[in-house]
Task: inverse folding
């Protein structure tokens, strides 16, 4: 309690509050710009924090982190391009809601979900950081493999008319994730001798190509000069009443729990959390077919999860002294430059830092709500731009975003080629969302399966029965694979009953 | 009239000649650094090496008055950073920081850029490499672990980088020397592997002491053996225990090939002075870096040796 007061004291200083506000604004704007995610936004700001007190610097970065994880959803809804990887799952239903004219609902629900997830994550961090740390420790290679496999079962349900199409598209994504250096043999794979491929494909250009460029190309192909110039008609951009936003509390709570747990694990991250949360709600929904067609739960689920990750990700840093994600690694860097050693000793040596992180996560999420409203009000103007102008804006954003990530023209080429592939996939109705999912989870799955096999000395059975967690996850996988087949049987059953 | 023209031409020619000669003469005793200086590192801001470059940049700025900027040219397993510096003008305007990745990555990927296509200036540090285990593991010393591993060949596992990492190579050599069979579970990057050791999924791990220091202080991990002596740390080194395996995971500075010797000397001297600077000293002691200054020739030889060692390690996996 006394230590909390120290944190609060640090927090209540003028410079800390300003630092958090600046951090949240910077993070949100960065998140909105495609190609800049929370980690990059933090890295860009890092050099400016070196003149500050370590506690203030870390508060500012915490603000950027929260803002960045939220910002990505704004372009996901408005132009169908996730601003950050973690917002990819938000596109499925967010963009559909926007096309249906429910723009305001999608944008404000995503903001509300993010703030809810962020606050939930902060509370978990404060109250449960020790038990949460044990979750991180319970997950070894076998557990990660099965977690990734659980997430991958979603691809079966992403191919709307055909399960096989989802699987094909997912396998293609996994194939793309194998490009680059083989993590075990240390030899290049599928790089065709290209130096630029030696690190594998970057997620950002790949995703922006598949989502944004292909969508622009598709719309441009069917665009008629006599058509309406507005991107979507009659879009309602007003903020829905808070009561409506709060009515998704069940989704928010479960989504946040998924986010916190996945956030704690060093091998996963916000993107995995968002996909797992989306997949959970689609699977357990009474009406799974409504997902991907503009179901608000499809926005609330990933957005609450990817912001709850912020709290979870701090757990390994504070409880174990090991940064679990790229974003927390940057926070570690910010502390190291001030010669502050992170880890459990922080609570004794520099209590103002961990308690500063705790309290700043709270303040940052509250600030985020207001910053988010301002950003939405500004970004929503994009809906009044004429279609051709908007296409040009999107292409410009996507190409600069791809380039900015590494400063390589190669990534622009990747985005363009992925755009053409995405267009082809749309034509034959292969779900490109499944490709992205395969890409995100493919590498986690492969590396951890191979690690688990070394540990189990080559026994596949040993991988699946490694622990209670693996057995539970195996059961979940089997049930999710059988569900699409059980569904029609059950429906037949109920139909015949009705007769 | 014609003469006047001729004289003018001659005058012009002579003055051009003088200007050219003067600029060459000035270039010869060029002062380093000239204007803006760029320090390049191959991984993201906030990473261990990036912090080193930034602290160094701060020192160079206060020392010389020049503006020193750190650029993180990430991607393509380091090739983006190395190839861009290799193509720079050789005037000492760009300093490239390199670590042992600079040995492994070009070999694994068959990059046309490696230690031979850049000019070494000096090695600054060695990262302390150690073998660690969970605090709850039943081993007090490295000998305890070896005894257990001998009883159960192939059953205990070790994490540590990937096949090309120098610590991976060293750990495998040490296990061979100790006469035990401990399969390696490769993990990319530090944190995931360390958490797997704390969680007991893997028995021991090999890595930089800096990465596990706070977990050791927090009572989660214990270091069993060090590859490099770190003053003030009560853990035996490989030499103490009579093993011959050594590894020096280096951090150093290289520049574009063909940089004039005078400029290289100026950079060398600045780096050497930096090692004595109190601020820089605080930085490297706090980050568990062992100061290990080596001049260009010895640094080059070290990179040559490590290249051969990693080559053998990569072949061994095929």
Result:
């Amino acid at each position: 309690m006394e230590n909390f007061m120290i944190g609060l004291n640090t927090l209540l200083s003028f410079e800390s509050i300003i630092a958090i506000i600046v951090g949240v604004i910077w993070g949100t704007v960065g998140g909105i710009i495609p190609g800049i995610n929370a980690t990059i936004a933090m890295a860009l700001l890092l050099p400016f924090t070196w003149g500050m007190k370590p506690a203030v610097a870390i508060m500012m970065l915490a603000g950027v982190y929260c803002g960045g994880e939220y910002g990505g959803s704004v372009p996901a809804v408005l132009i169908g391009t996730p601003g950050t990887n973690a917002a990819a799952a938000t596109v499925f239903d967010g963009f559909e809601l926007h096309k249906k004219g429910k723009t305001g609902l999608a944008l404000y629900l995503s903001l509300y979900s993010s703030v809810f997830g962020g606050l939930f994550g902060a509370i978990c961090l404060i109250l449960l950081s020790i038990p949460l740390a044990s979750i991180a420790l319970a997950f070894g290679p076998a557990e990660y493999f099965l977690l990734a496999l659980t997430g991958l079962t979603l691809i079966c349900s992403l191919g709307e008319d055909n399960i096989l199409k989802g699987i094909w598209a997912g396998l293609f994504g996994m194939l793309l994730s194998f490009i680059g250096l083989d993590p075990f043999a240390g030899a290049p794979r599928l790089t065709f001798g290209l130096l630029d491929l030696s690190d594998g494909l970057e997620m950002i250009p790949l995703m922006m190509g598949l989502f944004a460029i292909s969508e622009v190309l598709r719309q441009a192909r069917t665009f008629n000069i006599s058509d309406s110039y507005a991107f979507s008609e009659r879009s309602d951009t007003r903020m829905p009443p808070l009561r409506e936003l709060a009515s998704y509390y069940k989704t928010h709570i479960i989504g946040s729990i998924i986010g916190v747990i996945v956030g704690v694990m060093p091998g996963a991250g916000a993107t995995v959390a968002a996909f797992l949360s989306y997949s959970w709600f689609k699977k357990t929904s009474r009406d799974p077919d409504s997902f991907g067609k503009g179901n608000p739960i499809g926005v609330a689920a990933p957005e609450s999860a990817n912001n709850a990750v912020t709290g979870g990700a701090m757990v390994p840093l504070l409880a174990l002294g090991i940064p679990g994600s790229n974003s927390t690694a940057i926070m570690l860097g910010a502390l190291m430059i001030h010669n502050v050693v992170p880890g459990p000793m922080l609570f004794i040596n520099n209590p103002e830092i961990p308690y500063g992180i705790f309290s700043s996560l709270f303040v940052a999420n509250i600030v985020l709500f207001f910053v988010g409203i301002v950003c939405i009000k500004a970004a929503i103007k994009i809906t009044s731009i004429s279609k051709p102008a908007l296409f040009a804006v999107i292409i410009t954003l996507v190409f600069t975003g791809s380039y900015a990530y590494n400063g390589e023209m190669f990534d622009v080429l990747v985005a363009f080629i992925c755009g053409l592939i995405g267009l082809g996939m749309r034509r034959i109705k292969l779900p490109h969302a499944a490709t992205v999912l395969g890409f995100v989870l493919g590498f986690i799955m492969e590396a951890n399966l191979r690690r688990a096999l070394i540990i189990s000395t080559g026994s596949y059975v040993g991988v699946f029965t490694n622990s209670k967690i693996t057995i539970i996850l195996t059961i979940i996988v089997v049930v999710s694979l059988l569900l699409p087949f059980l569904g029609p049987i059950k429906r037949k059953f109920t139909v015949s009953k009705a007769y | 009239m014609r003469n006047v023209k001729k004289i003018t031409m001659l005058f012009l020619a002579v003055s051009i000649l003088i200007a050219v000669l003067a600029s060459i003469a000035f270039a010869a005793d060029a002062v380093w650094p000239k204007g803006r200086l760029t320090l390049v590192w191959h991984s993201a801001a906030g990473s261990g090496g990036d912090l080193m470059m930034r602290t160094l940049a701060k020192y160079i700025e206060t020392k010389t008055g020049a503006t020193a900027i750190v650029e993180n040219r990430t991607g393509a397993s380091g090739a983006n950073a190395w190839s861009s510096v290799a193509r720079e003008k050789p005037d000492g305007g760009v300093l490239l920081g390199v670590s042992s990745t600079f040995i492994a990555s070009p070999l694994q990927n068959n990059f046309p850029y490696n230690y031979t296509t850049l000019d070494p200036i000096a090695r600054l540090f060695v990262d302390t490499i150690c073998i660690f285990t969970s605090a709850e593991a039943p081993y007090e010393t490295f000998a305890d672990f070896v005894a257990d591993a001998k009883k159960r060949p192939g059953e205990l596992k070790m994490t540590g980088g990937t096949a090309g990492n120098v610590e991976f190579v060293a750990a495998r050599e040490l296990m061979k020397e100790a006469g035990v069979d401990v399969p390696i579970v490769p993990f990319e990057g530090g944190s995931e592997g360390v958490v797997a050791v704390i969680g007991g999924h893997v028995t021991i791990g090999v890595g930089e002491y800096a990465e596990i220091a706070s977990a050791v202080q927090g009572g989660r991990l214990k270091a069993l053996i060090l590859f490099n002596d770190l003053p003030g740390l009560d853990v035996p080194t490989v030499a103490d225990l009579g093993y011959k395996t050594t590894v020096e995971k280096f951090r150093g500075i290289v520049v574009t090939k063909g940089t004039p010797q005078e400029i290289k000397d100026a950079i060398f001297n600045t780096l050497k002075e930096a090692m004595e600077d109190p601020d820089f000293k605080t930085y490297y002691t706090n980050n568990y870096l062992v100061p290990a200054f080596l001049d260009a020739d010895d640094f080059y030889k070290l990179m040559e040796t490590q290249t051969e060692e990693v080559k053998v390690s990569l072949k061994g996996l095929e």
Notes: The CA atoms of residues 321 and 343 of chain A lie 3 Å apart. Chain A touches chain B through 58 residues (CB under 8 Å). The mean pLDDT of chain A is 86. Residues 2-498 of chain A form one domain.
